[in-house]
Amino acid sequence: MASYAAMIMSTHLSLVPALLCILAMGAFTSARASDDQQPVGMFDQHGDIGAVGSPGSAAYDRDSQEYLLSGSGTNMWGDHDECQFVWKKVKGDFIVQASAEFLGAGTGPHRKMGIIVRASLDPKSPHVSAVFHGNGLAALQYRKATGAVTEEIHVGPEGSNILQLERSGKTFTMGAAKLGDTFSTQGFDTIDLPDEVYVGIYICAHNNTAVEKGVFKNVRLIRPAKTTFVPYRDYIGSQIEILDVTTGVRRTIYGAADSLQAPNWTPDGSRLVYNHNGKMFSLELSTLKSSPIDTGAQVHCNNDHALSFDGKMLGISSGSPSIVYTLPIEGGVPRQITPIGPSYFHGWSPDGKSLLFTGARSGEFDIYRVAAEGGPEVRLTTAKGLDDGSEYTPDGKTIFFNSERTGKMQVWRMNADGSDQTQVTSDEYNNWFPHVSPDGKKVLFISFPPEIPAGDHPFYKRVYLRWVPIEGGKPSVAAYLYGGQGSINVNSWAPDSNQIAFVSNSDPL
Question: pTM of whole model > 0.90?
Answer without folding.
Answer: yes
